[in-house]
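hey so u asked for the seq, here:
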Amino acid sequence: MLSSSRSWIPAALADVLLILVFAAIGRDAHARGDIVSGAFSTAWPFLAGAAIAWMVSRAWRAPFALWPTGVVIWIGAVLVGMLLRAATGQTVVLPFVIVALISLAVLLLGYRALVALLVRAARRRQRRV
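ran it, structure tokens below
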């Protein structure tokens, strides 16, 4: 989608930042105290899942692609994240799984869709010139 060989860097940073935002919002919504360190504590399983999904999907080849890159990272973050949470004794209940699926879809797929729209609009403008 983006031509730069380093376009994976902002995509990876965006994934990390948005997973941390998801965790921080959740911590704040449940008044769990220390949002910063608590967000990292909540986010690490999802970050690990996203990292594994990056490797499995070779996301660096098309880091902003909604399909399959974005979907694989989203599902990987949630699936591996929940498995790691369960393995480490953290809460894994159906409502949380649903919230994580929806929230991370909006965040991880949403920014990729926005990038796709912006790239498409820029290409249209470029063709007109």
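The chain is about 80% helix and 0% strand. Residues 74 and 105 are 6 Å apart (CA to CA).
lmk if thats what u needed
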